[in-house]
Amino acid sequence: MRYVPENPLIVQSDHSLLLETMGPHFTQVRDALVRFAELVKSPEYVHTYRVTPLSLWNAAAAGVGVDEVNEALGRWSKYEVPPNVPVWIRETMGRYGRLQLLPHEQGLVLEATEAVLMTEVRNTKACRDLLGPELDEHRSLVALNDRGLLKQVLTRIGHPVQDRVGYVDGEALEFKMRDTTLSGDDWGLRDYQVHAVDAFYGDGIEGGSGVVVLPCGAGKTMVGLAAMAKLGMRTLILCTNVTALRQWRTELLDKSTLTEDDIGEYSGATKQIRPVTLSTYQILTYRRSKQDDFVHFGLFDEARWGLVVYDEVHLLPAPIFRSVALLQARRRLGLTATLVREDGKQGDVFALIGPKRFDMPWKDLEHQGWIASASCTEIRIGFSDEDRLRYATADDREKFRIAATNARKGPMVEKLLDKHQADKVLILGMYLDQLEWISRRWKLPLVTGKTPQKKRDELFESFRNGERAAMVVSKVGNFSVDLPDASVAIQVSGTWGSRQEEAQRLGRILRPKKGDNRAHFYTLVTRDSTEQHFAEKRQLFLTEQGYAYVIELPQ
């Protein structure tokens, strides 16, 4: 029986993988696994991964081969790989491409490599209304408007479709990227950004839809800009909020030949539709009541868009999937730091936006100096006797709130502010009463969802230009807020076990710094509480990227 003691991997028959962290090959094996497996939990000595159909289909779409996956498992496994695992991997990855959508003079055609597979699909209840007449035992017609819905359904039942229909071109929009910014600084795409754009477009048929995954601070906006310039067509860009929208506008003007007249803002304040139109998920999902239609979904049909860019695509609201399903003839680019979705709809992103086309490990970019080198510290703080009693008698939801807003976190915030007086500090949390207390206690500006957009922009600008060295920010600061000089984040409370929130909050301080390119991420957690349990879940994605949390237990 095989036994290689120096190998750190144990492959189990249920498709789970156990990776020992203390051996000499840990980093190498972790970097191999992240291409086709998902991290489930990460205690100190053994990390658990799981290979799933979606993780394998994304790998296949990104060009990772079956033999490459099985070779990695065989090479690094401590024991024999259970014989069912390579077979299951081969069969699961092999499903990607067995069904193809192709153009046809009567609309579209779904084609199967095997007649029995087409028979299975035709007899699946969820597919019946989406399939038209049979052309032969391998092919069925599909209506143009059902392209996205069929892909969504087939992904859910385990038969992902390779979409080779191509796209309808939008109205032409020619512009170039600048060699220098408006302020005269030299500028150009980094190598990995060029590779990301090339991977997105691929062969031009299947390419042109999909997701580019890059950490915060690595220039996802520049990838979007380069994709727009390469395509040269009218573009709709959807952002998480108005702050992000205006940051996109600034970057487009600064680094391309687009003019003010080329760029429109479609938000609550104004409704401009121009060759490049910027909007938000919030305005698109607005409706007067739950019984009414979404008022602004018509934006998708207001112009001949050649490209739709979904910024922070992991936050794409579920209602928008309905419109995305009808936009399959237009090129679609999703940008994100993590494909993790807390609602479990990663499969819908895969089916409707497209598969993962490019992914760059965070630590690789850190080693190359493109993002800051970050240290992560979890500080576990005890309860007072009074709060411990309150916690013991509370229900589960209230337990979490009591732990998250533990008053003993206050002295630790003060200690960290004193320690980092020379740094730009963000204090991040989810409970407004906690954040308001911190703001009053240390006379720091506070930005929440209630802060008017004009005031919000003024406060962010005062932080950027050095007028303010510290700021308190609620969940509105998790996404797409460009504060390049921020080098310290203190997380006083988080959203349950949200992995993507943890990643985004670290991302607020990852933009490269002049001189000392280091950042510090502190998360304050109440010891021996449900908050500690959920903190471990929140940290999963960052652990997968190679970040290790130092645990401190202050007396």
Characterization of this structure:
The protein has 555 residues and is of the alpha/beta class. It folds into four domains: 9-94, no CATH class; 99-163, Alpha-Beta Plaits; 191-360, Rossmann fold, CATH 3.40.50; 369-552, P-loop containing nucleotide triphosphate hydrolases (Rossmann fold), CATH 3.40.50.300. The protein contains 22 helices and 23 strands. The strands form four sheets. Strands 12-13-11-14-15-10-16 form a seven-stranded parallel sheet. It has a seven-stranded parallel sheet with strand order 19-20-18-21-22-17-23, sandwiched between helices. The relative contact order is 0.10.
- Contiguous low-pLDDT stretches (5 residues minimum) are none
Main sheet attributes: strand count, strand direction, barrel closure: 7 strands, parallel
Could you estimate the helical fraction of the residues in percent? Answer: 25-40%
Assigned CATH architecture of the largest domain: 3-Layer(aba) Sandwich
Approximately how much beta-strand content do the residues carry? 15-25%
- Class from helix and strand fractions: alpha/beta
